[in-house]
Give the backbone structure.
Amino acid sequence: MGALTDIHVPDIGEFADVPVIEILVTVGDHVDLETPLVVIESDKATMELPSPHAGTIREILVAIEDKVSEGTAIARIETDAAPATETDAVPATIETPAHAETPHQPAHEPHHAYAGPSARRHAREAGIDLDAVHGTGHKGRITVEDIQREATSAPGPDADGQPAPASSPTFSKYGPIERVPFTRIQRASAANLTRNWQEIPQVTHHEEADITTLESWRKQVSHEHPDTKVTMVALLIKAITATLEVFPAFNSSLAGDELIVKRYINVGFAADTPAGLVVPVIHHADTKGLLALAAELAELSSKARAGTLTPAEISGGTFTISSLGGIGGTGFTPIVNAPEVAILGVVKARTQPVWDGGQFKPGLILPLSLSYDHRVIDGAAAARFCVHLAATLHDLRNALL
Ligand code: CAO
């Protein structure tokens, strides 16, 4: 007989009190190393907690909706071999695709339908009872597609008289089609964007900054420090931290009827990756110099594209920048990234005539678009914030004031 040992929640970054939304094993199941045991879901990510041992599950120590944090015991296992130590904890995996096949099928059907986190979330959002859905995935697992099919096959108002969700027409009736499943990141962003769009009364304020001098200084710095690529986004992070210090309400979160103003500045930046949009976070950006910011920006961007960001690297943001400056555009309305209250959108800088009081001269103009939670920030405050940011970008010496 192997040793009995408890399995604890591993390091899950700064997530705490995260609800259990799914239990993937039952007592008596034999699991392999890294077999997912339970699924937890915060408002930012869904994580599968894998087993750090191979063995037989002897007790499940959590129930659905229990809140867990790092160190919470989730199951008791009789290990096949000598028990691993606590340091052998397997890191949580974030947002496993719902249609990915679980390496281990429970020996007994659990008390609830067999579905992954994303399928469960889709079902909850569409008000669908999972027990009534026929699963077409591996060994009867309910997939996101099964939920979507169920949602579109139930037209008509629901019991509360609410209109049924819009159904997809049969596109193939009109010509050839291709089905492209969302990546796990696209599914997570879709849920967050929908919630933020529906729940936050947001307004976008537009401004322009003359960055002629800043751009020539950026080129000079890049020339003097060839090992570090100093991009406009790095300069924007510097200018934003200086502006947030003057306007702390933009670095806050709304909690009921009070505002939590953070005395630290963690700047997230939207990164376009092959798997979808992710927002890595530069922590304590206000304490870092331009070269350090530029180096961290480059490192986090390449980790984002490689899909190797850790939970800590996507957590704790207090303000977000979304830059499309490398691509184009004249302006756009970014969606506030809750629980933050403001986000800055930036598009491509263009050379334009600038009136200097006596004549027009060519100037490099950077369009800025600030979306903000109108419950927290008034239009006048947003306008002042943008004027200050534009002045800081126009002459970074203003950041020293
Ligand atoms: N105006 C003009 N040129 C700009 C610019 C701007 N505002 N911002 C960047 N550029 C230039 C850079 O200088 C660079 O030029 P060189 O290669 O000639 O030096 C080029 O555009 C590409 O920059 P980059 O993308 O490599 O680096 P970055 O630091 O500017 O941006 C990152 C990093 C991660 C923000 C960016 O790569 C990215 O992913 N942007 C997309 C974000 C996004 O999808 N937002 C939308 C979210 S909502 O759907």
Q: What stands out?
A: DSSP finds seven helices and 20 strands in the chain. Confidence is low (pLDDT under 50) at residues 83-88, 95-111, 154-159. The two ends are 70 Å apart (CA to CA). The first strand starts at residue 4 and ends at 8.
